[in-house]
Write a structure and sequence with these properties.
- This protein has a six-stranded antiparallel beta barrel.
- The protein starts with a strand and ends with a strand.
- The protein is 0% helix and 69% strand.
- The chain has strands at residues 4-14, 20-26, 32-45, 51-59, 62-69, 72-77.
- The protein is mainly β and 80 residues long.
């Protein structure tokens, strides 16, 4: 199975210290999914290329890797 970098919209909170916390993700069709829990935050390289801050999240019971790279968010997806 080939993975692609899929840029998405993310609702986020930025605190007074400048820390970014993703709250939910929004697909191209407008469906919004709340992030249930952030499991890990660290700098990482993606399997699909690129690097940035990895937010490993639980979304609707599934664990997803959400990346923040150069002011944009992406996930590793089976669809481009």
């Amino acid at each position: 199975m080939r993975l692609y970098k899929r840029y998405i919209s993310v609702v986020q909170r930025v605190d007074k210290e400048g820390r970014i916390t993703p709250i939910s993700i929004v697909w191209d069709d407008g469906k919004e999914y709340s992030i249930d829990r952030i499991l890990e935050i660290r700098n990482s390289v993606s399997q699909v290329g690129g690097c940035g801050v990895l937010y490993q999240c639980r979304i609707a019971g599934n664990i997803r890797n959400l990346y923040y790279e150069r002011m944009r968010w992406f996930v590793e997806s089976t669809k481009p």
